[in-house]
């Protein structure tokens, strides 16, 4: 993980003003109230999920400092959490982040082929984003759905029992509704409340 | 041997909703526990039941509960470990998605037994759908007076919240989970002190797996003695087994402990045999960290006795010829599976998931991955095989948490039982180039 994070602009501030909407702030205060008084730091991971979702799909220094100020903790406490957990992206990602499981149970059921096919179809390598900013392709470890292997996750949705034909359908579907959001696609804010 | 406790009524339509769940006997245990039993009586029933932790370690739940420090005067916490991340394991997700109230009911009884007024369900971040389902169920329970202040007029208060992780296998380790719940990196803590003394916010805490807690309601309703009658020997009750890999019917099965492994793999009630009529090659019976066993040792012990799905039978023979029940992640490999490639895959997983705190694990998992990568790609030497055994033995037992052990066991076991495959890779680099896993062919649309 180290090389990626050192290359990242983690320590470069853009000094852009960031702020949550009043309704989001209200939601965040509810989350903070789930923890005992003085333990508001516990809300860090849930708040980072909301921040990432509402502020462009990835985290940067400005966002992390803003989150730190909301929770009355130091920025470094946010940086160390954001760099530890694999669901937080420190570099910009596409509108759809395709995360393909590459761990054993999926691999023996064809997960390797799924990844190779996606690389071919999207014309990018794993870890990259398409030039139109629509898709990012990531390799992730076990998604906990081994019984329906091979699996992948696109943003909040799981896609299971994959085969190459299904990949074609999914990509076409996602491409066709670029700006649309699936009705069943709940946001982090909705799910955490 | 089909016996349903945690998955009882799972097929009923709408069972994820409170009203339907209650129509089918849901939440009856609360009335019994909160109104007619003392907290210690609930603990005693769970002890009598012989229930053991379903997350992997198999530690007796009642005993874990009795360690909680009730004298310190600090608030006590109950945490449900729903950070299911062990490759091959997907039973908790299934349970929470389909019958979330079973878990909530168990948690209320458990919190009452422990004297905890605050409880959290720590769900891995990838299970976003599950988080939504749990929050809906919790809302229903609050609205019905099953959570919150003065539950069912008993004077017992409990607040229950869902907390999401963000992608870290290590947070399934209970002290790492506690660190993560406190908003920090998931670095496991040195034990002792154990969480029962100093856990969340340095207060007495019990961390239990989803499936473990889902058993509590039944135990309260029917009594520990009845529960202890199910299963075999010290493996009481049922177990959720998540079966995956090269089998005809992957999925989650609730079995009575003691079911023969042969029946589980070949019966149509369970795995339904090996996919494509192929031969069974090997099984990892309890999630990726437990030792892999070849066909002959998974079906029978070295003494020739039928192997059963139980804590004792699967570990019969120690690590020389046995394995572990672990989390119940049952991964089946057919004759075409490449054990070297799979071992490399698992070691990459553990390298990725090591928190980096202890040198033997941080460095060792990286070396194992590199050496295995070398062998898998036809550049290995015979001495590399012994090097792997040596690295594995130096990680094991030398780390703060069990991730080091979990990383070294699969490598050591694969070499113990399939050394010939590693040697073949070393000796025939030209032949192994074309080995890959899976064979998804694009269906020809014209046909």
Shape of chain A: elongated
| CATH top level assignment of the largest domain in chain B | Alpha Beta
Main-sheet strand order of chain B equals: 8-7-13-10-11
Let me know the average pLDDT of chain B.
94
Cα(first) to Cα(last) distance of chain B is 43 Å
- Helical segment tally of chain A? 8
Low-pLDDT stretches of chain B are: 442-447
**What is the share of helical residues of chain B?**
40-55%
What's the rounded overall pLDDT mean of chain A? 87
Q: Work out the number of β strands of chain A.
A: 4
N to C succession of SSEs of chain A: HHHHHEHEEEHH
- The CATH class of the largest domain in chain A is identified as Mainly Alpha
Largest binding interface between chains: A-B, 58 and 66 residues
CATH topology of the largest domain in chain A: Arc Repressor Mutant, subunit A
Question: What oligomeric assembly is this protein in?
Answer: heterodimer
Characterize the biggest β-sheet of chain A.
4 strands, mixed
Shape of chain B: globular
* Helix content range of chain A: 40-55%
Question: How many strands, what sense, and barrel or not for the largest sheet of chain B?
Answer: 5 strands, mixed
């Amino acid at each position: 993980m180290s090389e990626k994070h050192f290359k990242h602009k983690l320590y470069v501030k853009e000094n852009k003003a960031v702020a949550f909407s009043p309704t989001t702030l209200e939601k965040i205060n509810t989350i903070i109230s789930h923890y005992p008084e003085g333990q508001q730091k516990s809300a860090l991971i849930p708040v980072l999920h909301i921040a990432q979702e509402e502020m462009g799909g990835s985290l940067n220094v400005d966002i992390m400092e803003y989150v730190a100020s909301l929770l009355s903790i130091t920025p470094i406490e946010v940086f160390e959490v954001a760099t530890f957990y694999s669901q937080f992206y420190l570099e910009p990602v596409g509108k759809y982040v395709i995360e393909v499981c590459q761990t054993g149970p999926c691999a023996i059921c064809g997960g390797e082929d799924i990844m190779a096919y996606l690389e071919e179809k999207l014309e990018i390598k794993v870890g990259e984003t398409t030039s139109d900013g629509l898709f990012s392709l990531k390799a992730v470890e076990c998604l906990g759905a081994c019984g329906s292997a091979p699996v992948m996750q696109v943003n909040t949705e799981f896609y299971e029992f994959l085969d190459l034909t299904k990949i074609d359908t999914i990509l076409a579907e996602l491409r066709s509704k670029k700006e649309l959001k699936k009705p069943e696609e709940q946001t982090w804010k909705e799910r955490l409340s | 041997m089909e016996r349903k406790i945690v998955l009882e009524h799972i097929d009923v339509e709408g069972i994820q909703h409170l009203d339907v769940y209650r129509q089918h006997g849901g939440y009856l245990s609360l009335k019994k526990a909160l109104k007619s039993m003392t907290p210690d009586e609930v603990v005693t029933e769970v002890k009598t039941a012989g229930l053991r932790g379903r997350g992997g370690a198999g530690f007796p739940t009642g005993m874990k509960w009795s360690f909680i420090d009730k004298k310190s005067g600090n608030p006590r916490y109950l945490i449900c470990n729903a950070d299911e991340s062990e490759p091959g394991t997907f039973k908790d997700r299934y349970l929470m998605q389909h019958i979330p109230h079973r878990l909530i009911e168990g948690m209320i009884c458990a919190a009452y037994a422990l004297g905890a007024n605050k409880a959290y369900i720590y769900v891995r971040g990838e299970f976003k759908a599950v988080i939504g389902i749990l929050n809906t169920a919790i809302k229903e329970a609050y609205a019905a007076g099953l959570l919150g202040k003065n539950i069912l007029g008993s004077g017992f208060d409990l607040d229950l919240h869902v907390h999401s992780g963000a992608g870290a296998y290590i947070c399934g380790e209970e002290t790492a989970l506690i660190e993560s719940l406190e908003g920090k990196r998931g670095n496991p803590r040195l034990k002792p002190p154990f969480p029962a003394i100093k856990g969340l916010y340095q207060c007495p805490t019990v961390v239990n797996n989803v499936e473990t807690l889902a058993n509590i309601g039944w135990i309260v309703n029917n009594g520990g003695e009845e529960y202890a009658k199910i299963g075999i020997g010290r493996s009481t009750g049922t177990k959720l087994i998540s079966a995956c890999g090269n089998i005809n019917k992957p999925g989650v099965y609730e079995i009575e402990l003691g079911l023969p492994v042969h029946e589980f793999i070949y019966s149509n009630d369970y795995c339904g045999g090996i996919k494509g009529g192929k031969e069974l090659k090997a099984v990892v019976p309890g999630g990726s960290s437990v030792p892999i066993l070849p066909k002959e040792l998974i079906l029978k012990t070295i003494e020739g006795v039928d192997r059963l799905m139980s804590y004792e039978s699967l570990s019969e023979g120690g690590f020389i010829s046995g394995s572990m029940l672990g989390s119940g992640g049952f991964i089946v490999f057919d004759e075409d599976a490449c054990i070297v490639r799979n071992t490399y895959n698992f070691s990459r997983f553990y390298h990725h998931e090591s928190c980096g705190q202890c040198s033997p694990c941080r460095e060792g998992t990286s070396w194992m991955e590199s050496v295995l990568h070398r062998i898998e790609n036809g550049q290995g030497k015979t001495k590399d095989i012994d090097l792997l055994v040596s690295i594995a033995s130096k990680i094991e037992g030398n780390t703060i948490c069990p991730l080091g052990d979990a990383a070294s066991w699969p490598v050591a076991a694969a070499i113990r039982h399939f050394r010939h495959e590693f040697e073949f890779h070393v000796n025939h680099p030209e032949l192994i180039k074309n080995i890959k896993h899976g064979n998804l062919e694009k269906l020809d649309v014209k046909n």
